[in-house]
Write a structure and sequence with these properties.
alpha/beta, TIM Barrel, Immunoglobulin-like, 8-stranded parallel beta sheet, binds alpha-D-glucopyranose, GH
Length: about 500
Amino acid sequence: MPETWWRGAAIYQVYLRSFADGNGDGVGDLAGLRTRLPYLADLGVNAVWLNPWYPSPMADGGYDVADYRDIEPVFGTLTEAERFIEEAHALGIRVIIDVVPNHSSTASAWFREALAAGPGSPARERFWFRDEPGDWKSIFGGPAWTQLPDGQWYLHLFDPGQPDFNWTNPEVHQEFHDVLRFWFDRGVDGIRIDSAAVLVKDFDGGDPDGYTDLDEVHEIYRGWRRLADEYDERILVGEVWFPDQERFARYLRPDELHTAFNFDFLACPWEPAALRRSIEQTLDTHIPLGAPPTWVLSNHDVARVVTRYGRAETSWDHGNRRDGVPSDLELGHRRARAAALLAMALPGSVYVYQGEELGLPEVDDIPDELREDPMWTRSGHTVPGRDGCRVPLPWSGEEPPFGFGAGEPWLPQPEDWRKLTVEAQTADLGSTLNLYRAALRLRRDRLGDGTLTWLESRPDVLAFTRESGLTCVVNLGADPVRLPPHESVLLASGTLDGEELPSDTAAWLA
Ligand code: GLC
């Protein structure tokens, strides 16, 4: 049994704008989410993580936060958020929210105050204002410095609507401690820390990447951990994207973050040797620290897993998103189902991004004028960006909006999603939704935190056993493979051929 809830949790990521719309304005909201809580309880997840829900001009889907202590009116009210937390808890679901400490919004009180106070003022010291721009590039494309009418420039590693905080200023530290307390006091169980590794800047070293993973960032999280530890079982989850495992592990030292997203696994191609290496390396990094690994196949920033795994090149690379690259969706679908059983059988916690349980593909044909991702505009309309994985969920019915809400969804849903609705998949025993339901339920009883033992297998097969006796076998080769000895087949991602496990299929055995 997991020692604490988060060590072996299945965490469902809710992209609120696209989950369920309660008031008919075409945008998902808390009212919609609250009515769908029974769906999440039935799915069998232990926790939800919600993307930012704060007041925001939506320059970057809410990652431009205007007020860290309130709720975006399009999503609802603070009172509704408090009710939602209570209702989730009553169903045994913990709540993780997103906190964005690297940057704010140009609409925030602090930034407006800084603009009004003018150059040289203490209000400008909370951000990075300069008389001359530096040469860093924005992660969304274009320069990272924008000039104001008064002549000064301000730093934004992301969109110009997202001015970076100055973390050498003690006021900024104090502010975020207060924000964490604000939400912990309201019963929030965990914080997902956005862009966790880029808070500290080194402008003088001449490095074009002088903001990634500087040593001083760890002191910030030590302070956050002390604060979280004053409460009961509250966790800090880092969004830490970089390949160096040794540097990654430093965020998981016992006095820092509880867990961090395993993007190495997400980015890994659907290839047996690479996956085995990623899994082994993940376990080697985490076990000595006593931190549970996490397993992530998708989120709101990357192409849907069905689409990725159906492409000729199945790895993920932020710098080369391969938007619009053709994909064999049937193949991708088969692999995504096998990958889900793999991820859910591994020791640690697992994330499910909304729609992953429905096998939704990436939507590649969103009309240009409807695209909202700043990557699209900032890249000069060369990178379509992340809207294709953020299309509102199909719940029921034969045509859009597929039960998402009464209004026209903020991004159009493909007509053929009628086959992928929650309603259609509930009725179909072999559906991806029913596979996820069954797997999450079995996982709850028999898996979660712990270790694994590899079984001997062909090099193109991954096979391991967990403490509970459950064996997971994944066939990544072209030829069928004979299942190892077992009492029964608990679950399979595709149809077995007697004792043979077909290509791109996974099975759980007792
Ligand atoms: C993180 C978020 C992403 C956002 C960025 C800037 O990477 O996941 O959606 O655009 O931070 O806040």
